[in-house]
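Dear Dr. L.,

I hope this message finds you well. Following up on our conversation about the binding site, I have prepared a predicted three-dimensional model of the protein together with iron/sulfur cluster. For your records, I am including the exact sequence and ligand specification that went into the calculation, followed by the structure tokens. Please feel free to forward this to your student if that is useful.
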Amino acid sequence: MISKLTGRAVNEGLPATVEEALELHQLYSTTELSKAADAIRLKWCGDKIHTCSIVNARSGRCSENCKWCAQSACHKPEYRNTNAYPKEKL
Ligand code: SF4
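The resulting structure of the complex is given below.
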């Protein structure tokens, strides 16, 4: 079963149904499932990663209101680091 579903996912991009996933969980070890998942990941995502980073450039002074961002002036955290990154270093 795991070979068939892995092949289907790799070759056709079709994921397991909920019922199939539950059956896989009951029949196979974590190691076997991880190996199958890795084959699918390699096919569709490759073996490279992309990274990104953010810097403390506005430190609570940004006029936007992105809910997740501590640099937004719209949020009032208990702690605010005021040492913004110097503009010339950006
Ligand atoms: S509040 Fe939004 S726009 Fe402003 S720094 Fe954060 S993520 Fe960027």
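In brief: The chain has a mean pLDDT of 88.

With kind regards,
A. P.
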